[in-house]
Design goal:
This protein is mostly helical and about 475 residues long. It has helices spanning about 5-25, 25-40, 45-55, 60-75, 80-90, 95-115, 120-130, 135-150, 150-165, 170-185, 185-195, 220-295, 300-315, 320-325, 340-370, 370-385, 390-405, 405-420, 425-435, 440-445, 445-455, 460-465.
Length: about 475
């Protein structure tokens, strides 16, 4: 059984190795050693703080904050440097927000790369790397995409930048090896080494004479004997040591098995902390999603405030066309504050008096240009401002008919014929209605007869009504 003192000793050895690697800028190797240290002793705050610094140096600010938050929860004393690290990051909220946006853009670029949109991913990653030169994940993805696009010079420059920050990055070394193979540098180096150590083929008559050859003297014989003894001792050493190393390895493996059993309980505690962190992250993502919904939803109160401000600016500058175009998405009923409601009603009244004809003219232009959906939206805005306008209803019916939506066309034409029979559009509406649906035209002209016909076809419904 391994005692707690031995566990701390092994943990400290991993921490020292991680510290040594970090000083050599082998960030990947240092992170691996520090993770092993924390698996053995999660209360090793120095290792956790150093791991956070390494994550921060590699551009992974969120991972660094996770380590420092855990460190402050385990050690709340002021001597814990994690408090200072967190304060320094929180003081620069603008940089923290910028880092968060760049991480989101990196995730978008990763999805684009996986979807085959390498060009968009490269454009996205160029901006991320320029703003966050230490974001190694972004640099590695950019280098890989450039390598696939055969932009070898740029790829080599990006990958060398990664190795300047993290000399132990295995991915950067793999990509550079592929780049050397692609450019032929690897084959050129192999040929140079081959020529350096190769000579012409020897014949039977060739004799190799060392340039400083001399007959062996007594001292040289003694030296040769001593060298032979040393070689013999080395051979014995290398023959015996493997067996001893195997024995030590087996004993060590048995100790590790016993130690793994002791670590299960510690791992459960770590899993519990990780689940708490996942819950916090989920709550944060949910809050961010709600905020995005409030900001991006055109029907939200924030979007309506934005439209109200834009309408005010357009009306003050006399740009009635722009005001009319965005008025279609304006909903003054959403406001609850009396002052804001008065402003919104004032804008609505001004649009109704001054901008109504502009909206109607713009709708007619969109219709003539073949933009049916835009025209319908603007005509609907006209009806919202002035509901009693048979001309707008007739035009909407014509657009619906052009789109093949005969049901809506019949409904609009019927409304013009029945509700505005004396209007100038009523005659044209009757003609169009007769062409589309004679039954609807007859029902619009004689609604009582249509009701009697319906009753004759369904007498049971009449009986139920009379009962």
């Amino acid at each position: 059984m391994i005692h707690s003192k031995q566990i701390r000793t092994i943990s400290n050895s991993f921490y020292n190795d991680g510290l040594f690697r970090a000083k050599k800028r082998d960030l990947t190797g240092a992170a691996e050693s520090l993770r092993k240290c924390l698996n053995l002793n999660k209360y090793h705050t120095q290792a956790r703080n150093l791991l956070g610094l390494i994550f921060y140096e590699m551009g992974e600010v969120s991972e660094a904050l996770v380590q420092w938050v855990i460190s402050t929860n385990l050690d709340k004393s002021e001597a814990n440097l994690a408090h200072r690290y967190i304060d320094l990051i929180q003081e620069n909220q603008r940089r923290l927000d910028a880092v968060g946006k760049d991480i989101q853009k990196f995730n978008e670029a990763l999805i684009q790369a996986q979807s085959g949109n390498a060009d968009l991913a490269v454009l996205q990653l160029n901006g991320v790397v320029e703003r966050q030169p230490h974001f190694l994940k972004a640099q590695l993805l950019l280098g890989l995409l450039l390598l696939e696009r055969h932009e070898l010079h740029r790829a080599g420059k990006v990958l060398n930048n990664v190795l300047e920050i993290d000399r132990g990055s295995r991915k950067a070394e793999w990509y550079l090896a592929a780049l050397r193979q692609e450019t032929g540098l690897e084959e050129a180096e192999r040929r140079r080494m081959h020529h350096a150590f190769s000579h012409r083929t020897m014949t039977d008559d060739d004799v190799i004479i060392p340039p400083s050859y001399r007959e062996n003297t007594g001292w040289q014989s003694i030296l040769n004997i001593a060298a032979g003894l040393l070689l013999g001792a080395a051979a014995v050493f290398f023959l015996i040591m493997p067996a001893r190393i195997k024995q030590n390895t087996e004993a060590h493996n048995q100790e590790l098995v016993s130690y793994n059993e002791q670590l299960n309980q510690k791992n459960e505690e770590i899993d519990s902390l990780n689940s708490q962190m996942d819950s916090y992250k989920a709550d944060k993502e949910s809050a961010e999603q709600q905020l995005n919904t409030l900001q991006n939803d055109s029907g939200s109160i924030m979007a309506q405030y934005t439209i109200l401000v834009q309408l005010e600016n357009y009306l003050r500058s006399g740009d009635m066309n722009s005001a009319a175009m965005i008025y279609a998405n304006f909903n003054p009923e959403i406001f609850t504050d009396e002052t804001v409601k008065n402003i919104a009603n004032s804008v609505r009244q001004e649009i109704a008096t001054k901008g109504y004809q502009t909206i109607e003219n713009q709708a007619y232009e969109e219709w003539n240009s073949g933009h049916y959906d835009q025209a319908l939206s603007l005509y609907q805005t006209c009806l919202n401002v002035k509901p009693q306008n048979p001309k707008v209803m007739y035009y909407m019916a014509m657009i619906y008919r052009a789109q093949g939506n005969t049901d809506q066309a019949v409904a609009m034409l019927t409304q013009v014929v029945t509700q505005y029979p004396d209007s100038s559009q009523a005659g044209a509406a009757r003609t169009q209605l007769s062409a589309i649906s004679p039954e609807a035209a007859q029902a619009a002209e004689n609604p009582s007869a249509a009701a009697e016909s319906s009753a004759a076809e369904n007498p049971s419904a009449v009986a139920e009504t009379q009962g």
